[in-house]
Amino acid sequence: MQWLILGLVIFLGVHSVRIVADDWRTRTIAAWGEMRWKGLYAALSLLGFALIVWGYGQARLMPVTVWHPPLPMRHVAALLTLISFVMLVATYVPGNAIKARLGHPMVLGVKVWALAHLLANGQLADMVLFGAFGVWAVLSFRSARQRDRINPPRPQASSVPATGLTVLLGVAAWAAFAFWGHRVLIGIAPFGR
């Protein structure tokens, strides 16, 4: 479990600099240059992510059950992860109404994804992993909204075709991951196949 926690501290710590020290981040980027900052950011993110993956796998070898989620929570989790995939795609498709309305769909998608997994999993490692990401997403969204109040973003135009494409790509990505990728990459088939 210690490797999972260390990975979370590194990964979420790097991704929290803007939450807790935005002025320091701006000064450091100005002093170092953007490429050097991004290089260090990427290297630490990859290290943290690798430790999360390895630590989570190790923690699953000796599971500690905290609670037994009822079977219907799998269906709730599937619906919530579908929503989170659409939000994730909305971050990248220009001109969609979801991003125009929510402003920060990726962070909201992480929040929904974490909640879905907390509802459907009852092991301690799951609570640590998804709970940490959920707390980070709440704090990150709050920080982003505070920055928006100080420097309001320009209103974004949206179109029905871009929004439709966003939903279509989100559903397709979710289906590919739910019915194939989750089992291959994580080792768990969400729908019991």
Structure description:
- There is one protein chain.
- With 193 residues, the protein is mainly alpha-helical.
- The protein has two domains: 1-62; 65-193, no CATH class.
- The protein is 78% helix and 0% strand.
- The protein contains nine helices and no strands.
- The chain has helices at residues 2-14, 17-20, 22-32, 34-61, 72-90, 97-102, 105-120, 124-150, 160-186.
- Helix 1 runs antiparallel to helix 4 (34-61), helix 3 crosses helix 4 (34-61) and helix 7 runs antiparallel to helix 8 (124-150).
- It is globular, with a radius of gyration of 18 Å.
- The mean pLDDT is 94.
Percent of residues in beta strands? under 5%
Distance between the termini: 28 Å
Unreliable spans are none
The structural class is mainly alpha
Helix % is over 70%
The SSE order reads: HHHHHHHHH
Determine Rg (CA atoms, Å).
Answer: 18 Å
Largest sheet: none
State the total count of DSSP E strands: 0
Number of helices: 9
Describe the global form. Answer: globular
How many structural domains in the coordinates?
2
What do the pLDDT scores average to?
A: 94
